[in-house]
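Continuing the batch. This is chain 6 of the set; chains 1 through 5 are on the previous pages. Same settings as before, nothing changed between runs. Recording input and output for traceability.
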Amino acid sequence: MSENTNNNKMARNLKGRHVQLIALGGTIGTGLFLGAGQSIHSAGPSIVLAYLIAGLACFLFMRALGELLLSDIDSPSFITFITKYLGDKVGFVAGWTYWFTWISIAMAEITATGIYMKFWFPDLPQWVTGLVVLLLIYLLNSISVAAFGETEFWFSIIKIVAIIALIVTGLVLIAIHYKTPVGHATFANLASGHFFNHQITGFLLSFQMVIFSFAGIEMVGMTASETQNPEKVLPKAINDIPVRIILFYLGSLVILMSIFPWENISPNTSPFVQVFQSIGITSAATIINFVVLTAAASACNSAIYTTGRMLYTLTSDSKTTFGKKLNTLSDRHVPRNSVLLSSIVVAIAVILNIVIPDGVFELISSVATTCLLFTWSLISLAHYKYRKSLTKEETSKLTFKMPFFPYTNFFVVGFMVFVALVMLMKRETAFALIGAIIWISVLFIFKINIDKKNKIK
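Output for chain 6:
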């Protein structure tokens, strides 16, 4: 397949349903289906409150992102706005950090596929499943953006139908007061024990995984330049996606903790599979395990899409032969070389699953969370600078405004700082936070040195 020059633009082949489901698909993944067990174990019923608070912050963040995207619908990604309003150095660091974020998410997702496959094949090494899934996803992302969009659409449909079916099934079990090994299915199980497990500490610690659960909500900002009729599609997607995700998350978690007392939910396995397996509905457990496996593959699919587009954008001004190779499109208008390199880096997770299979998921998800906090904060700050740059007349003409500006910007950034501080309370997440800060610092120093060399030349 021949490569084209940078003069060619990526094709606008993503429809409204694709954009909606890509963001939903990228978000509804391992953070919910696997990480919910850890969150419930930490926070107890108060996990519902944690999701509501985080969901509000994410909705407001998305409104800020939407306003930026509509100010320039031809922008290849939201990194363009960070660079424009916060400076070249910040844009450079943000771009590479976001690329690294999705590399981490992809690593977490292929790790999860190996964990899920053990449900059927307990002796199968985690890395085998991860490698096979990664190869298949690379091939899908190399064909065309329409192929990716259609695949992600159906992946996401499976997850959404499964969550709705789980909620309906749970309501039936609660209605008939179904007997479980540890009691009966009833909403009263939500009130068992303390609302805040481990007092307030568990509630606070749950925010790391809660934020990781929302990872991907910003993917709308990566699809704008490949979306048909973006002025109509993007506002609808931005308004609908956060609300739907909150409803799916809260609905499924409330049902799980009503069927099965939350104290009995394991932090190390998928609570969705555990609950139905424990109450003796083996066929349901098998189906749900297939769904969560699909969910992980779907989120990894979104991650490879995002990292490929981000790497393509980051190398747009590269003067090196290697950088120019990454910044080319195939004759199907796909940044195939960037997708390939991103996939190769994600394959490091295969090695990690061979060396430390038990600790990979929490480590990688914590790193991804830290990077997301940084990126989301920068988008909110870029939006603040954008609005401040407008005249009153220009502001009055905006059709998609951030509500209660600028106080909502302050709330979003403040919430991100709060979650970062909470991550210092636990050793594993603190290590990830410190590692991410070192990564960001190294990028800043690297960019400063590059700029100095360019000035000398």
